[in-house]
Amino acid sequence: MNRKKRTATMIAILLAGAAVVSVFFSHHIRYRESAWAGDPFTGREIHCALNIGRTDDSTRVLITGYNYALLKAFAHDIGSTASIIPARDTAVKLLDSLLAGSLDILVLPFRRGKELPEGTLSSVDIDSLSVWLVKETNLHGLRDINAWLNQYERSPLHDKMEKTYIQALYDPFQLVESGRTRKELSPYDSLYKAYAPSLGWDWRMLAALSFKESKFRIDAHSHMNAFGLMQVGESTAAKYGLVDQMEPEGNIRTGVKYLSFLQGVFSKRVPQGASSDLTKFVLAAYNGGEGRLLDCIDFARQLNVYDSTWASLQHLPEIAQMSHVETDSLNLRKYNLSQIAGYVNDVLDTYAAFQTICP
């Protein structure tokens, strides 16, 4: 591969977290081909785990995504691929996996002055935020990791990555109050722009839904086993063939496929031209499940209060209570419509904020 083509590929991998295609610079990290000779990582799949942890610190909120992009780029540059898993096991189990050889690289938060776990070596720190650990016997691997990271830190690409991930949007409403605007909402804007048109949505609406689900954390997960930027559940991932739930493009693509399915379901129940109501039904079903929403529609019809609008469904619990209707057949408290309505309003409020921040 010639240098020019390699440059474009490198930048695409880094700035996408696996799929953003915009090229921001005309050059990247340069290295001597001979520097990788003897590297045990070269030419094979590198098994990596991310154990950054959850945080509400706005300077650290996307560090998992940042390291994911760097690991993919590092693997690409040395002629390998990277298999990256989130921290679903404890740090102790992941460390055991590293020492046993089933993991090659373990990413941990950077702790100044903290002793390394026994049997490991640490890379140079990455922006004083994270480090990559390898087994202490993997001196060649550590040498090449450090060579790559040192060159990356001196490259113009580093400043762009720092701005995109470390200084990324965290609280949109504070930005609105401050009157500040931005050119980017997240590291994944180009993906939202690529996939939103298939829904007929403004890309900022898709970004708002993703922000509500994950705050743009690729490692976000819930007790319902939903995962990633769009909080894709295991059954949805299986249905649409998503293997790596943490990979940004795959997660967004799968979420959009499910949203498209929901549009098909509820377009039959919403008058043509009522696109805003259709969007609200779709958002509600994305949060609560289409079965729950369809049951509520049927119940509202029994009460003769359903007029194909979101408003007639949103206030169903109050209507049922005032009508003194027997509700044992549909446990409205279990269906939690008030919470679902709050979810829809949150997404729409975030969308309005995103329109202001990124006009």
Strands, helices and their partners?
Layout: H1 3-16, E1 45-50, H2 63-77, E2 81-86, H3 91-100, E3 105-109, E4 120-122, E5 130-135, H4 139-154, H5 156-166, H6 172-178, H7 189-195, H8 203-214, H9 234-240, H10 248-266, H11 275-288, H12 290-302, H13 310-314, H14 316-323, H15 332-335, H16 337-357
Parallel strand pairs: 1-2, 1-3
Antiparallel strand pairs: 3-5, 4-5
Tell me the strand order in the biggest sheet. 2-1-3-5-4
In what range is the share of β-strand residues?
Answer: 5-15%
Please outline the major beta sheet: 5 strands, mixed
Quantity of strands, as a count: 5
Q: What structural class do helix, strand and pairing data support?
A: alpha/beta
Order of helices and strands: HEHEHEEEHHHHHHHHHHHHH
Q: What is the third-level CATH name, the topology of the largest domain?
A: Lysozyme
CA gyration radius, whole angstroms: 23 Å
Average pLDDT confidence is: 83
Q: Name the shape in a single word.
A: elongated
Count of domains:
2
Count of alpha/pi helices: 16
Q: Considering DSSP H and I runs of 4 or more, what fraction of the residues is helical?
A: 40-55%
- Which spans of ≥5 residues are poorly predicted at pLDDT below 50? 17-38
What is the CATH-assigned architecture of the largest domain?
Orthogonal Bundle
Query: In angstroms, what separates the terminal alpha carbons?
Result: 39 Å
> Could you name the CATH class of the largest domain?
Mainly Alpha
What does this molecule look like?
With 359 residues, the chain is of the alpha/beta class. It folds into 2 domains: 3-166, Periplasmic binding protein-like II (D-Maltodextrin-Binding Protein, domain 2, 3-Layer(aba) Sandwich); 172-357, Orthogonal Bundle (Lysozyme), CATH 1.10.530. It has 16 helices and 5 strands. Strands 2-1-3-5-4 form a 5-stranded mixed β-sheet, sandwiched between helices. The longest helix is centred in the last third of the chain and has 21 residues, at 337-357. The chain is elongated and about 75 Å long. The two termini are 39 Å apart.
